[in-house]
Design goal:
This protein folds into two domains: 238 residues, Aspartate Aminotransferase, domain 2 (3-Layer(aba) Sandwich), CATH 3.40.640; 104 residues, Aspartate Aminotransferase, domain 1, CATH 3.90.1150. The longest helix has 21 residues. The strands form four sheets. It has a seven-stranded mixed beta sheet with strand order 2-10-9-8-5-3-4, sandwiched between helices. The chain is an alpha/beta fold. The model has no long low-confidence stretch (mean pLDDT 97). The protein contains nine helices and 14 strands. The two termini are 30 Å apart. A hairpin with a 4-residue loop joins strand 6 and strand 7. Helix content is 35%, strand content 17%. It binds 4'-deoxy-4'-aminopyridoxal-5'-phosphate (PMP). 4'-deoxy-4'-aminopyridoxal-5'-phosphate binds next to helix 3. GO terms for molecular function: O-phospho-L-serine:2-oxoglutarate aminotransferase activity; pyridoxal phosphate binding. Pathway: Cofactor biosynthesis; pyridoxine 5'-phosphate biosynthesis; pyridoxine 5'-phosphate from D-erythrose 4-phosphate: step 3/5; Amino-acid biosynthesis; L-serine biosynthesis; L-serine from 3-phospho-D-glycerate: step 2/3. It catalyses: O-phospho-L-serine + 2-oxoglutarate = 3-phosphooxypyruvate + L-glutamate; 4-(phosphooxy)-L-threonine + 2-oxoglutarate = (R)-3-hydroxy-2-oxo-4-phosphooxybutanoate + L-glutamate.
């Protein structure tokens, strides 16, 4: 029986995508060859790469000022690649620190130029998105993590500033429409809402590049990958193909507005289940900061002994991946695009049954 997959990533993908991907591994488009054994420069694969780029552009409404790249190295490599390509001693990168991933981005950027942390929610264990802080003039960019996968917080509005934004959207890309014109660069590891692990989406504004003085190694220079259409070296063909299938699914299911409505309905159901339940507490301070993608919650103080019994009940009901990130403990239900409302209802019912038994 297929489980209800609440894993934070690698994560749930649409069932038809799994089936099409499996078939492409056996026989790609009736070629008599697997997708995994054909050249990345064959017309059959370059068509996949082209379609994936067009889908990204189309879904996000990107203007011609932007390039779409499919790279390797995970979102973690973008922590340094963004700064290496955009920042030097003449500039200053502003960063908002909203969790472990932001903190890693800050640490890596410091090697390439001055960095100012303009706001941080670290003191409250990242249980909120900072608001109302002054943003200094003259920043080269302001870096934000739009959804904090571990702490369950998410920006519901972009910071009010004329400064160009750079964003890690790993865990909420394609979950709702975005005002892309505000960004110089957007990056996202695919393995949450876009596809399997192994490819990283980078969307970069062309005129943001070429401004730093340093030598950039060829593989780490965005301009290399722009020039070579994400095929300077062998691209991750399978993750790109599966991402393309997932983006086709997003489009066929109504695009980003439809995804947003679907995701908000799931989040509403999930947070109602947490709030109405006397054994659980949400971890995020203000309701408006709660992530639509990753709902984090704990057992109430004094009932931590029920941790294993709750996870057992989840497993019995076919709900997988509900355990929180190892650094924070507790529980986390990830509600990415491909998850159905019915699966969230199953988890809500488990929470209810659990309370009936233990409260
Ligand atoms: N940023 C965010 C918001 C994440 O959730 C993650 C975890 N996948 C990362 C960055 C790191 O991504 P990767 O494992 O692709 O390097």
């Amino acid at each position: 029986m297929k489980k209800h997959n609440f894993s934070a990533g690698p994560a749930i993908l649409p069932q038809p995508v799994f089936e099409q991907a499996a078939e492409a591994v056996r026989d790609f488009n009736g070629m008599g060859l697997s997708l995994l054994e054909i050249s990345h420069r064959s017309p059959q694969f370059t068509a996949v790469l082209d379609e994936a780029q067009v889908l990204v552009r189309d879904l996000l409404g990107l203007s011609d000022a932007y390039e779409v790249l499919f790279l390797q190295g995970g979102a973690s490599s973008q922590f340094f690649m963004t700064a290496m390509n955009l920042l030097d001693e003449k500039g200053k990168g502003g960063y908002v620190d909203t969790g472990s991933w932001s903190a890693k981005a800050i640490k890596e950027a410091q090697a390439f130029g001055p960095v100012e942390v303009v706001a941080s929610s670290k003191a409250s264990n990242y249980n909120a998105i900072p608001k109302g802080y002054p943003i200094p003039d003259g920043l080269t960019y302001l870096h934000i993590t739009t959804n904090n996968t571990i702490f369950g917080t998410q920006y519901k509005a972009l910071p009010e500033t004329a400064t160009r934004l750079v964003a890690d959207m790993s865990s909420d890309i394609f979950s709702k429409p975005v005002d892309t014109e505000r960004f110089d660069l957007i990056y996202a590891g695919a393995q949450k809402n876009m596809g399997p692990a192994g490819v990283t989406l980078v969307i970069v504004r062309k005129d943001a590049l070429g401004k730093v003085g340093r030598h950039i190694p060829t593989m780490l220079d965005y301009r290399t990958h722009i020039k070579k259409g994400s095929s300077f070296n062998t691209p991750p063909v399978f993750p790109i193909y599966v991402s393309m299938l997932t983006l086709r699914w997003v489009k066929a299911n109504g695009g980003l507005k439809a995804m947003q409505a679907r995701n908000e309905a799931k989040a509403k159901l999930m947070y109602e289940a947490i709030d109405s339940n006397p054994l659980f507490d949400g971890t995020v301070a203000a309701a408006e900061d709660r992530s639509v993608m990753n709902a984090t919650f704990n057992l109430i103080e004094g009932r931590e002994d029920l941790f294993a019994p709750f996870l057992e009940l989840c497993e019995e009901a076919g709900c997988s991946g509900v355990k929180g990130h190892r650094s924070v403990g507790g529980f986390r239900a990830s509600l990415y695009n491909a998850m159905d409302l019915e699966s969230v209802q199953v988890l809500a019912d488990v929470m209810h049954a659990f309370t009936e038994k233990y409260a």
